[in-house]
Design goal:
198 residues, mainly alpha, 78% helix, 0% strand
Length: 198
């Protein structure tokens, strides 16, 4: 997180480590929610969509319907898996030792850990639904995945992220200040060495 040569407030560093651990914990719970609850939530909406068009549904033969339903289930699972992989990569970035680089990426990480990104996971399924004339589906909010998922994403993750970012910014600013001071002192020392006696 910080190099040994930096003189940083140990209380601030302790708070930062704890905040990072809390953020990672909530991120892991979100990933587990995507693994277990997103695909069933999407498929529940798919059933509603198909049931709302009984005539189109009746046009599908049993075998064709089975293949069609299976293709949508695979598309829903693929979306959930894609999000899981994305979020796993983002959480891995929290483990970097280079805090300055991490701070630059935090806003992007936070934007991806948003419902707006998760709700787009229905697109592959919607493409399949529309190909047969069924209405597209929509997950209106994280509660459509589960109530527990909503709490983790909207309440716990957001609060943990705000705390971690605040502390990370403070530590990164202090590191930069010390680096700037060190950079100023080096040329001064070199110029003294370079002077010749007359």
């Amino acid at each position: 997180m910080a190099r040994k040569s930096y003189s940083l407030d140990p209380v601030l560093l302790k708070d930062l480590v704890e905040a990072k651990a809390a953020l990672a914990r909530h991120g892991i719970v979100i990933i587990r929610g995507l693994e277990t609850d997103l695909e069933p939530a999407i498929m529940a909406e798919v059933k509603d969509s198909m049931a709302s068009s009984p005539r189109r549904l009746a046009q599908l033969k049993d075998e064709e319907l089975d293949r069609y339903a299976e293709s949508m289930r695979k598309a829903a699972m693929g979306s959930a898996h894609e999000l899981k992989d994305l979020y796993t990569r983002l959480l891995a970035k929290l483990g970097t030792e280079f805090l300055g680089e991490l701070v630059k990426e935090l806003d992007g990480i936070d934007q991806l850990f948003k419902w707006e990104r998760i709700s787009r996971s229905v697109k592959p399924v919607n493409d399949l639904l529309e190909s047969k004339g069924f209405r597209p589906i929509e997950l209106a909010g994280p509660e459509d995945v589960s109530d527990a998922f909503k709490v983790e994403l909207v309440e716990k993750w957001e609060a943990a992220f705000i705390r971690f970012k605040l502390l990370a910014d403070q530590v990164a600013e202090e590191i930069k200040r010390q680096e700037d001071e060190e950079a100023k002192s080096v040329p001064a020392a070199e110029s003294k060495k370079g002077r010749k006696k007359v």
